[in-house]
Design a protein that fits this description.
Organism: Parachaetomium inaequale
Helix content: 10-25%
Distance between the termini: 36 Å
Family: Belongs to the asaB hydroxylase/desaturase family.
GO molecular function, one term: oxidoreductase activity
Strand order of the largest sheet: 1-3-11-8-13
InterPro entries: AsaB-like
Order of helices and strands: EEEHEHEEHHEEEEEEEE
Protein name: Methyltransferase
CATH architecture: Sandwich
Radius of gyration: 19 Å
Number of strands: 14
Strand content: 25-35%
CATH class: Mainly Beta
Length: 281
Amino acid sequence: MADAITATIRYVQRDETKDLGEKPYILHYAAPYGFPQNNFTIKPVHGIKIHNFRISGVTYEEHGIGMISLNSSGMKPESFDDDDWVEQVYLPELHRSVCNALGAKDMTIFDWMLRKRAPSFPARKPGEENEENHQPSLSAHIDYTTAELASRLPQYFGEEKDKILSRRYQVINIWKPLTGPCRDFPMAYLDPATVDREKDLIAVDEVFPTVANEVFQVRWNPAHKWYYIPDQLDSEVAIFNAFDSEKGQSLAVPHCSFDLGDATGSAVPRQSIEVRAFIFY
């Protein structure tokens, strides 16, 4: 099994000719006439070495990146189209598996999402299959800044916030393909120990019609070390850290999807489910 492959990772880039005092933003709706949709660009960086996680020795405890097994028997891809089935079957099984693997006492899931790649992605053709579904996310990012997470705690836990969060907790992302082996736009994970958090991370406002979320986009740094799970099965679940109440975001893992290319990839468009959760120890 190869130690690494070479691929393209997409990173954020600011236009140095523009006002860098303006906070980066992207509008997730049609901008008013004459108003820029965003004030930064995402640029592909070619020739990035992406290492084989399976033989890396990387652990969740030290690097914030892990993989666990899930009992996926009877979990057909079409079952995930039923929200009630996801809530009543998949999420409880995921709760049990994650808590057992991480030694957590409890887990509170606050978000989940299906992604179904359109055949023409990333170049889009109107009217094709899965056009309206969420697509793989191609730019290196972290889903929340510390400030963003803090602003959400009252929403998730209400008046019980201080009591609930008096325990050690982590915020995690949990990702798996609906079918395997996954050879179509798999996930890549950046070792947080190789990230310069002052220089590499840019806080960006993702603006929707009724809310704005603050995330980190990532600048390229030659010191970065990336990993992926070759041929990930539907019974294999990737877990990666976003926040730790004792360590902050020192283990928060930048991540994105990437194209394996024609030689290694698959013609079968990827379908996947991601879950975001608090885990309590």
